[in-house]
Amino acid sequence: FEAKWDHASTLKKVIDAVKDLIGDTSWDCTNTGMSLQSMDSSHVALVHVLLKSEGFESYRCDRNVSMGISLNSMAKVLKCAGNDDSVTLRHESESSVVNFAFESHKEERVSEFELKLMNIDTEHLGIPETEYDSIIKMPSADLRRTCADLSQFGDSVTISCAKSDVRFETSGDIGTGNVRLSARGSSDKPETEIAIEMINPVSLTFALKYLNFFTKAAPLSDTVKLCMSNNHPLCVEFPMPEVGYIRYYLAPKIDE
Amino acid sequence: TNPQPPIETFFPFM
C-alpha cells in the first residue's frame, strides 16, 4: 500500500476532526481509497471517513489491508509535517508498521517516521441507505457557531426543521436560547447558502457535546449537510469535493 | 434529561 498527498494540510485536518471522538481505529485501505468507521467510546456517535483514491497525488493498494492506528499517535506524526509538505504513507503486507514520509516542495527536507500498528477488532455497523425527511445545507461556520453558542445554556439541542427555516433550541439552569436560520440563496457565493429540503417536518434532540466534536471538521469544508429523519440518527456530512467526506452519525435522545 | 440509546440500536453490527 502506498498513498501520496501533495499537501499534508488535508490529512492533518481530517485527523484533528476525528481524534478527540475516536481514539484508536482501523484504516481500511482498498483500491478505491482509505476509509474508517468507528464509534465513540460511549457508542452514541459513529464516524465514517472516506478518502477516495482519486483525491491522492498517487495511490496504490495491491491487497486490501486494515491498519489499526492510534489517531493521537497519527496526529503526533503529522505535527512533524509542514502544511505544504507532501505526505507519503507506505505499508508492506504482513508488516507491523506504517511509514510516513514528509517532503518539502523544494525537496531540501525529507523526514520519515514509522508508526507501530495496533491490533484492533474491526466490527462495522451497517448504515442503511436512508431517504431523509429533511436535509439542511448550510455554512459549516454557522453550525459551529450555533452549537458553541447554545452550549453555554444547555447540554442538549432540539433541531426542528420546517419548510423555510431551521430552529436550534436549548434550555438549561441559567435560561434558554434559540437560533433560527432561514433559507437563503446565493448564486455568486454558494458556500454561504442555506438550503432546506423538507419532505416531512422533523424535530429531534441531540447532545450538544457531540455536535461540538463534529464541528471540529469545519476547517475541512465550507459547507455542511444535516440529514434528519424522525427517530433516526442525525447525519452530519462535511463534503470534501474530489477528496471524499467525513460523516458523523448521532443517535437522537428519545422521550421517556 | 432524556435517555440516549446507543447507535447500534439504529445501525446494528453487520
Report a brief summary of the structure.
The complex is a heterodimer of chains A (256) and B (14). Chain A is mainly beta and 256 residues long.
If you had to describe this structure to a student in words, what would you say it looks like?
The complex is a heterodimer of chains A (256) and B (14). The model of chain A has no long low-confidence stretch (mean pLDDT 95). Chain A is globular. Chain A is 15% helix and 43% strand. The longest helix of chain A has 12 residues, at 140-151. In chain A, the strands form 3 sheets. In chain A, strands 6-2-3-4-18-17-16-10-14 form a 9-stranded antiparallel beta sheet. Chain A has a 5-stranded antiparallel beta sheet with strand order 5-1-7-8-9, covered by helices on one side. Chain A has a 4-stranded antiparallel beta sheet with strand order 13-12-11-15. Chain A has helices at 9-18, 71-79, 140-151, 208-214, and strands at 2-5, 24-30, 33-39, 45-52, 58-60, 65-70, 86-90, 97-103, 110-116, 134-139, 156-161, 165-171, 176-182, 195-198, 202-207, 223-228, 234-240, 244-250. Chain B is low in regular secondary structure. Chain B is rod-shaped, with a radius of gyration of 9 Å. Classes of the chains: A mainly beta (256), B little secondary structure (14).
Highlighted features:
heterodimer, A: 256 residues, mainly beta, 9-stranded antiparallel sheet, 5-stranded antiparallel sheet, 4 helices, 18 strands, B: 14 residues, little secondary structure, 0% helix, rod-shaped
